[in-house]
Amino acid sequence: MKIGVLSDTHLVKVNPRLREIVNVYFAETDMIIHAGDLVAVDVLQYLQGLDLRGSSLKHGNLEAVHGNMDHPDVRNLLPRKRVITVGPFRIGLIHGWGSPSGIEERIKDQFQEVQCIVFGHTHNPVNRWKDGILFFNPGSPTDKRYARDNSVGILEIGNEISGNIIPLQ
């Protein structure tokens, strides 16, 4: 199974760049995870409406949490954190908060018995194992205020879980 991972899109409406990113990089995915700061309900509804490879996942094609920059309408629709089970793996999903320094320790304390934590907030990609947990931040596909380059991620689930960061052109 392949999961497209986004965070920190910071869009007030769906634009051609987001559509291109989804069509090019997530065409072969089974679901999408968004780790917060979608900003607008329009973006949430667009991602919820995608038809991904005819996925039959019982929890749908999109899993998302809200971030610190999301509009109150988005915050009312999405939780601050969640745990999803994909195959044999439990994945914690949270946006994150505060300084980038120490963020992995702060978010790790929010979850128990997960094999992967997907997060955002820093706009910088992370794909590393620490203390038996895969910490995965796809970076931001659209916002360059805090990151050198834009990126998205792919999680691959099989007998193991692994992540890939994809730099965007």
Structure description:
With about 170 residues, this protein is of the alpha/beta class. Helix content is about 20%, strand content about 30%. The chain is built from four helices and ten strands, in the order βαβαβαββαβββββ. The strands form two sheets. It has a five-stranded mixed sheet, with no helix packed on it. Strands 4-5-6-8-7 form a five-stranded mixed sheet. The protein is globular and about 40 Å long.
Mean pLDDT: 92
CATH fold naming: Purple Acid Phosphatase, chain A, domain 2
Tell me the number of structural domains: 1
Helix run count: 4
- The CATH superfamily title: Metallo-dependent phosphatases
CATH class: Alpha Beta
| Share in helix | 10-25%
Write down the Rg: 14 Å
How far apart are the termini? 25 Å
CATH architecture: 4-Layer Sandwich
Which features would summarize this protein structure in a list?
single chain; 169 residues; alpha/beta; Purple Acid Phosphatase, chain A, domain 2; 5-stranded mixed beta sheet; 4 helices
Write a compact overview of the structure shown.
This protein is an alpha/beta fold and 169 residues long. The chain is 18% helix and 30% strand.
Write the layout of secondary structure elements.
Elements: E1 2-6, H1 16-25, E2 31-34, H2 41-48, E3 62-64, H3 72-77, E4 81-86, E5 89-94, H4 103-108, E6 116-118, E7 126-130, E8 133-137, E9 151-157, E10 161-167
Parallel strand pairs: 1-2, 2-3, 5-6, 6-8
Antiparallel strand pairs: 1-9, 4-5, 7-8, 9-10
